[in-house]
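ENTRY TYPE: protein
CONTENTS: sequence, structure tokens:
***
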Amino acid sequence: MKYFTGLLLILVTLIWIPSCESNKRANNYNNKALVDDAGILFFKNGAEASLTTVKASGLAISNSKNQQVIQFAKAMIDDHTLLADNLKKLEIDNFVTSSDTINAGHQQVIAVLEQKKAADFDKAYMELIVNQHEQEITLFKTASLNKNSNLSDFANKNMPSLQAHLDSAKMIMLALK
């Protein structure tokens, strides 16, 4: 009987130990978002802001003649594409789905920007980037206070680069005047 009890104890231990070390995500059978309404709004607005920045920066590469603006636009495309991809991964982890489209207001701003050329374009593009980044920083500051730790960590981690973008954009804008 002692032998059988010892064997049973070893077997249970061998089964129990690997289950404690699993990194697998728990199943969310009801597919309910793991963030509150403020978190869902963050995902929606964050994704849209990044898409708008990427689209406007693509225009800057073709419509601007200023090398400083073009280099800045290339950096915006790289950084905001990465930000959007990371945001999308976080959305998936939190069972949130947001649209990959730009709203009508931002599309109208892009359409107006498309019509501008050279110096007029540069000023309008840099103003758009400054406004976008000011809004994004406010959005990320609010998200940094969210009770979902993954969301708040993401926001805190990305705020310094958004602030650096804003500072750079303001400097370029001053140089254009």
Notes: Confidence is low (pLDDT under 50) at residues 22-30.
